[in-house]
Prior knowledge:
The protein is α+β, with helices and mostly antiparallel strands.
Amino acid sequence: MTGEENFWDTANTSASQNEKQTHNESNAKASPDEVAIQPLHRSEVDSNNPAKESENGIFMSREPNEIAHRGFQRFSTFLMIGGLVTLLLLLRIDSAYPWTAWECQDELVESNDGTFRCLAFFDASQVEYEFYDNGTVNYVHDFFGDEYTEQVRWASTDNHSILAFELLDWSMWDEWPHCEWEGDTFAGDTRWYCTTFDQPNVFLESSFYCEQLGSPWVCTDAFGKSENHSDTQSASRSQESKVYDCMKVGLLEDFVNQTSQEFLNSISSMLYPSWCFEPVPDSQQHLVNVSVLPFEGKPVVVHYGESYLGPGFEFNVMQYESNTVRHSYLTSTPYDADGNEVLDFSDRLIGAILTIFVLLAYAGGAVALFTYRVHLRHHGSENTLSLMSSWFNRQPQTRRELHLRSDSYIRRHQTTSTDSEGS
């Protein structure tokens, strides 16, 4: 259609209002076939396209005709953004009100009340232990292909059951991916410059002293500024700055005969021994021939300070066997003898209702945008234009009206605009 043609000359007024689907957007860059309404004097109108007027001088009415819009773009945007929001809501609902029962694929541990807990295997390493006179056990641990040495100290008395790891004192040391002596100048000379894990190719940090521990570097300012620190990458002073990181534990055989809250109550009543969270002594430790495994090789439930024990919570379980260190997870929810999770009926009902509601809301929004239409109608006796819209293929409803003059004319034209970036 050319710019001088009448809009209604080519409109298929006999067709159904939903037979034709095009797209429009109020602020589109290039909006094809937009409808513009502007008054034109009869002298400006081409004689080949006279204004549509009946013989008695009354304007002829026109049925609603769909005009161009961009509903499909809104629909596709809603599918992506709305789908992501819906997924996050469903995950949150399943966490708060689980209604789909999980099946235990690993070991079932029976309790005295006839229910079971699922003990899910995570990782196991073949190890050789070294036993020391202070109760410390050393071993080389293979964690998904990376080998490193762990030092474990344990204690079990009437007042406490403790599992402790010798860790670097991170209040004194920082860890960085790569460091170079005087690799930059922004903080001055006689110091190490290090990259960060966020920007591994740019020096952003500096320290007076650094060592390389395998792939990461550890640095500190505790030893002061000195030219003698220029080649400390192979030193081991960091190994003299370790502390005991202690965690309270309980035997698995005791835990399964308690509720999760009872376990927490018993854990909270335990007292830490005096050596917990203190520096590891510098005195030489001596190997001993007595091979006493931590907690005599029995699995223990480790408490990392958690206070939330809601649905889906899992406890860490460690077991030090004769030549294996095993790491597993124990569920806080019970299972039946067939390995199916036992869920509260009210939680399942609430979870199912909320899930159905969220899915229906998402589907309803998608259908609403997909079926959204914009129509233009001319009322002949009143010489008025009505802008109408419809949802779900229903009868169009008037959004706004425009009263025309007798010499008004409807012209279809094409516009193009650019944004601030020139697109």
